Each structure stands twice: as C-alpha cells, then as structure tokens.
Amino acid sequence: MTAPEFQAEFDEGRGLLVVHGELDEPATVELRDQLGKVTKEYTQSLGLDLGDVTFMPSPAIGVLATSQAKLRRNGGDLVLVAPEGTIAQRLLTICGLDHETEFGGLTS
After folding, report:
1. Residue 83: how many CA atoms within 13 Å on its side-chain side?
2. What is the rounded distance in angstroms from the CA atom of residue 12 to the CA atom of residue 9?
3. pLDDT at 39
4. Residue 85: its pLDDT value, please?
5. Rounded CA gap, 91 and 71, in Å?
6. Cα separation of 51 and 57, whole Å?
7. Residue 91 falls in which region: left (phi positive, over 0), alpha (psi -120 to 50) or beta
8. Where are the beta strands (DSSP E) in the chain?
9. Closest CA to 14 of 81, 103, 77
10. Under a CB-based contact definition with an 8 Å cutoff, are residues 18 and 55 in contact?
11. Which pLDDT tens digit goes with each residue over 7-21?
12. pLDDT for residue 106 is more than 60
C-alpha cells in the first residue's frame, strides 16, 4: 500500500488551508512555500487544517512553528487545526504548539 500523496488546497473565502497526506521532506518544502505565499501579506487569522495528515516529522513541525510566529508578527494568526485523536493533534500537543480542534466553528 502506498502512502497518501500530499495535497493542499486553499479556501480563500474561509481563510483555510487544508492539508492531506504525508508531510515528508518534499511535501514539507512545498507546504513551507505555500504558507510563505499565503502569509506574506496576510494580517488576519488563517486556518491550517491538519486533520488528514498521516505523517509529520520534526522538519514539518518546524515549518508550522515558524509560519505561526511569522504571521503573528504581521498582526495575524496561524490557527493550527488538529481534531482530537489525529496524528497532528498528538504531535502538536507533545511539541507545545498552540492548536484548535476546529476553525471558525467548522471541524475538519
């Protein structure tokens, strides 16, 4: 069985980037680039839905922490969305990164 392929879709209307699959090294670079583009001029809350992430090593955690800090410096916030029981929720809790179980009243 092959690993779920990385995908990310940005819902501009909701301000939500939804990520699916493994955040391996190439996917982490792609996510970093996408977050860089989206957060460059963003000054409000942006959601990052990690509910369907199946693998998230330390470089991916670093990208999330850096992006969260960058957006906060710009006056916005990167809300990491990780529903209870997901891989992302467990890892974000262990790493001490702020996260929510839903974004804007909608769960992933």
Report:
1. 10
2. 9
3. 76
4. 95
5. 21
6. 15
7. alpha
8. 7-11, 16-22, 45-55, 77-81, 102-103, 106-107
9. 103
10. no
11. 999 888 888 999 999
12. no
Residue 48 CA to residue 75 CA, distance in Å, equals 17
Residue 71 near residue 46, CB atoms below 8 Å: yes
Cα 23 from chain centroid (whole Å): 10
- Is there a contact between 81 and 49 (Cβ–Cβ < 8 Å)? yes
Q: Which residues pair with 46 in a beta bridge?
A: 78
Residue indicated by tokens 């963003």: 42
- Whose tokens are 């929510």? That residue is 100
The pLDDT tens digits of the residues spanning 28-64 come to 999 999 888 877 767 778 999 999 999 999 999 999 9
Residues 69-91 pLDDT 10s: 988 888 888 999 999 999 999 99
